[in-house]
């Protein structure tokens, strides 16, 4: 059963703004100052709410997304800032030659909030991001690990039972698709969740990619209860126990969200 923020752009935007102000910026600021003149790129920016608190601090912000409708919404929400040259929202692929030519070595901070789990070929994509960083620049990643109870994004399902059932996304791919179809999910939902299945990323694989990409972990925080769950389910965010954080593989199953800054 899709949540209200999946259907209402304004609610989704307001939640993005509050979560960014309360959690994302404070986390990034532990390793990189945020203020006037800081250049920020968000990949998978949606309606742009994550960037709003950065813009309020005087940062120059660029948001890109492959969903043209959500970029149109962002340009509407931030019409004043865009007109003043303080922000830019682009329906663009960061692999495009013109984007790389314009923004190579341009950004102090790159943000991927609930995005990397949707990106194919992450082994090539993550090191590619270094092209856009200034010397000393950092990348923020925030995502739900694949093996956690709802790592398959099954909350996007239209049927209440399939949207609330944990862990079944760990079934083999044919069984997973078959179960969704048997439960009456639409072809659109089936394809959406299969895409996430195919791009799934665990904490272990993410950290391996970082090492192979010569990206150093500057800070990390694992959450037992994802900060975004206070909007979705009314749950108070809770950090993961330190012991669990250091137990490979087990941590994936009981950690609903991770934050990393790397550089």
Features:
globular, Rossmann fold, 8-stranded mixed β-sheet, 2 domains, single chain, 40% helix, 8 strands, alpha/beta
How is the topology of this model organized?
Layout: H1 9-28, E1 39-43, H2 52-56, E2 60-65, H3 68-77, H4 79-83, E3 87-91, H5 97-103, E4 107-113, H6 122-128, E5 133-143, H7 160-164, H8 173-182, H9 187-198, H10 203-212, E6 217-225, H11 229-232, E7 238-239, H12 242-245, H13 250-254, E8 257-262
Parallel strand pairs: 1-2, 1-4, 2-3, 4-5
Antiparallel strand pairs: 5-8, 6-7, 6-8
Structure commentary:
- The chain is of the alpha/beta class and 263 residues long.
- The chain has 2 domains: 4-145 and 200-262, Vaccinia Virus protein VP39 (Rossmann fold, 3-Layer(aba) Sandwich), CATH 3.40.50; 154-198, no CATH class.
- It has 13 helices and 8 strands.
- It has helices at 9-28, 52-56, 68-77, 79-83, 97-103, 122-128, 160-164, 173-182, 187-198, 203-212, 229-232, 242-245, 250-254, and strands spanning 39-43, 60-65, 87-91, 107-113, 133-143, 217-225, 238-239, 257-262.
- Strands 3-2-1-4-5-8-6-7 form an 8-stranded mixed β-sheet.
- The longest helix is centred in the N-terminal third of the chain and has 20 residues, at 9-28.
- The model has no long low-confidence stretch (mean pLDDT 94).
């Amino acid at each position: 059963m899709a949540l209200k923020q999946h259907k209402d752009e304004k609610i989704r935007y307001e939640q993005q703004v509050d979560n960014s102000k309360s959690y994302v910026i404070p986390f990034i600021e532990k390793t990189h100052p945020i203020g006037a003149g800081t250049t920020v790129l968000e990949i998978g920016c949606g309606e742009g709410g994550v960037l709003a608190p950065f813009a309020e601090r005087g940062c120059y912000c660029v948001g890109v997304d492959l969903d043209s409708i959500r970029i149109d919404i962002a340009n509407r929400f931030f019409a004043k800032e865009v007109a003043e040259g303080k922000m830019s929202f682009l329906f663009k692929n960061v692999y495009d030659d013109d984007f790389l030519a314009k923004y190579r070595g341009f950004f102090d901070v790159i943000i991927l909030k609930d995005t990397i789990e949707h990106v194919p070929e992450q082994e090539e994509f993550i090191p590619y991001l270094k092209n856009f960083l200034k010397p000393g620049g950092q990348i923020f990643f925030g995502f739900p690990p694949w093996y956690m109870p709802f790592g398959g994004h099954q909350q996007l399902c239209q049927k209440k039972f399939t949207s609330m059932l944990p862990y079944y996304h760990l079934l083999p791919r044919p069984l997973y698709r078959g179960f969704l179809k048997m439960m009456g999910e639409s072809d659109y939902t089936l394809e959406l969740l299969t895409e996430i299945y195919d791009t799934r990323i665990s904490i272990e694989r993410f950290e391996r990619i970082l090492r192979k990409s010569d990206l150093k972990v500057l800070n990390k925080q694992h959450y037992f209860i994802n900060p975004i769950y206070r909007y979705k389910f009314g749950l108070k965010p809770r950090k993961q126990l330190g012991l669990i954080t250091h137990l490979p593989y087990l941590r994936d199953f009981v950690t609903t969200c991770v934050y990393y800054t790397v550089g």
